[in-house]
């Protein structure tokens, strides 16, 4: 059964809609939630009603929308405290910068903020706002406060914004939010699966201050680790030097060289069911790193390189090998070279990306051609977070197809 079909029969979801252009997407989300059998009660902020009419949500959910904190008719039927006790989940989508700030402050000056304060149900927020507002330190602090209190933060995604900007702040797509809800309420499909992910570049020292490296930012591998954790996997991320913070709920091990990454991975393979190699590992390292800083006396400098161990091939060759997923970074002949890597390294699945100026490395978006024994699929260019979710869906299907008895869902 695919996650999209997983029923939420009789689950009670309080869908909070706050003001912003993304409010119209909440209508699609309400429809999707209702279609899985959930009972959906929409609560709108006053600002949200400027963007979408309450009647739209009423028609989609079969329930009158609640807006006002003090509404005599509604209070007589189901008072706000009763309403706070009703849901299995409170999902605020879209959550504007203002709503995040008010939730972080614990305000109770409208119905939605009061319900968030009064409920014992888990709360999830799906932020949507202008990219500069999302990057603002005040919003970052509010989000950190909410996360520290156990609020789930789903998204935002990066891309074109309604205001014409490009960057992080787009509402997560309704179908992805639907899956987030299903995972939270029904459990992830990788619960009990131990996964290892490599990400980022490696640095191969030339001398104490210089190294050979590459342009990997770690974004792709970190997104994969995040998507696996969202499916309930127990994730260890072995990361080269990057400027990213550890994803929530993921164990991170920092390394520098290919050899260190190799050792860190091999030391953690016991019990591992899934290995995803997204790191851009240096194929070669300087044979002898100089003890002292190399002086620029000569006009030419020869550096002898020696091959690094291939981590992915080493993992795939083990008798107790987990399900292995490699990446292939190619500047030409994408499918042909990637297929060759899948076969020679003996991996179960390969995710190939075209790399070059502005492509693959250090970008927010990426596209992947994914191939396994018996199938392949092209995923078009999209935000790396979204792309990782799609990749993890495919991995999950293949993993379960390989060992159905161990993975009933
Ligand atoms: O980090 P980002 O900026 O987000 O960029 C993402 C990415 C482009 C780095 C990522 O999507 C990607 O393609 N990662 C693999 C890069 C790479 O080294 O590809 P490759 O074709 O050279 O290697 C093939 C596979 O073998 C990869 O899974 C790699 O991790 C693995 N490998 C390679 C060499 C080595 N010594 N050990 C390995 O495990």
Structure explained in plain terms:
The protein is of the alpha/beta class and 409 residues long. The chain folds into two domains: 3-186, Flavin prenyltransferase-like (Rossmann fold, 3-Layer(aba) Sandwich); 194-401, Rossmann fold (3-Layer(aba) Sandwich), CATH 3.40.50.10300. It contains 14 helices and 19 strands. The chain has an eight-stranded mixed sheet, sandwiched between helices. Strand 16 (323-330), helix 13 and strand 17 form a beta-alpha-beta unit. Helix 1 crosses helix 9 (174-186). Ligand PMT binds next to helix 10, helix 12 and strand 16.
Structural class assignment: alpha/beta
Low-confidence stretches: 405-409
CA distance, first residue to last residue: 7 Å
Overall mean confidence score, pLDDT? 93
Portion in helices: 25-40%
Q: Judging from the principal axes of the Cα atoms, what is the shape? A: elongated
Proportion of residues in β-strands: 15-25%
Tell me the name of the CATH homologous superfamily of the largest domain: CoaB-like
Counting DSSP E segments of at least 2 residues, the number of strands comes to 19
Assign the CATH topology of the largest domain: Rossmann fold
Main sheet: which strands, in order across?
12-11-8-13-16-17-18-19
CATH class of the largest domain, named: Alpha Beta
> Which CATH architecture of the largest domain is right?
3-Layer(aba) Sandwich
Q: How would a crystallographer describe the biggest sheet?
A: 8 strands, mixed
List each distinct ligand once. Answer: ligand PMT
The total count of helices amounts to: 14
**Computed Rg:** 24 Å
Integer tally of domains: 2
């Amino acid at each position: 059964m695919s996650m999209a079909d997983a029923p939420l029969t009789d689950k009670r979801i309080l869908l909070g809609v706050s003001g912003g252009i993304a409010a119209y997407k909440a209508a699609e989300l309400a429809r999707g939630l209702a279609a899985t059998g959930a009972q959906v009660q929409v609560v709108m902020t006053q600002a949200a009603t400027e963007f979408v009419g309450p009647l739209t949500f009423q028609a989609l959910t079969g329930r009158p929308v609640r807006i006002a904190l003090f509404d005599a008719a509604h209070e007589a039927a189901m008072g706000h405290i009763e309403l706070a006790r009703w849901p299995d989940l409170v999902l605020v989508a879209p959550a504007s910068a203002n709503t995040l700030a008010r939730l972080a402050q614990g305000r109770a000056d409208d119905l939605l903020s009061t319900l968030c304060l009064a409920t014992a149900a888990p709360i999830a927020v799906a932020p949507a706002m202008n990219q500069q507002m999302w990057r603002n330190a005040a919003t970052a602090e509010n989000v950190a406060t909410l996360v520290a209190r156990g609020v789930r933060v789903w998204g935002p995604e990066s891309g074109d914004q309604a205001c014409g900007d490009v960057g992080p702040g787009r509402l997560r797509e309704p179908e992805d939010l639907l899956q987030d809800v299903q995972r939270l309420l029904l459990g992830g499909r990788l619960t009990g699966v131990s996964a290892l992910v490599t990400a980022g570049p490696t640095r191969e020292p030339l001398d104490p201050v210089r190294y050979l490296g590459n342009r990997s930012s770690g974004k792709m591998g970190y997104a994969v680790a995040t998507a696996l954790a969202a499916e309930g996997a127990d994730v260890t991320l072995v990361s080269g030097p990057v400027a990213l913070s550890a994803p929530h709920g993921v164990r991170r091990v920092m390394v520098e060289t290919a050899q260190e990454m190799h050792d860190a991975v091999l030391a953690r393979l016991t019990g591992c069911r899934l290995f995803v190699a997204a790191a851009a590992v240096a194929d070669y390292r300087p044979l002898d790193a100089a003890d002292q800083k190399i002086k620029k006396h000569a006009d030419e400098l020869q550096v002898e390189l020696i091959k690094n161990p291939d981590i992915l091939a080493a993992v795939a060759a083990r008798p107790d090998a987990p399900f292995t997923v490699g990446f292939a970074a190619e500047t030409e002949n994408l499918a042909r070279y990637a297929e060759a890597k899948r076969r020679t390294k003996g991996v179960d699945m390969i995710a190939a990306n075209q790399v070059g100026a502005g492509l693959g490395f250090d970008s927010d978006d990426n596209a992947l051609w994914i191939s396994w024994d018996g199938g392949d699929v092209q995923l078009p260019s999209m935000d790396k977070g979204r792309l990782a979710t799609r990749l993890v869906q495919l991995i999950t299907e293949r993993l379960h197809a390989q060992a159905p008895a161990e993975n009933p869902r």
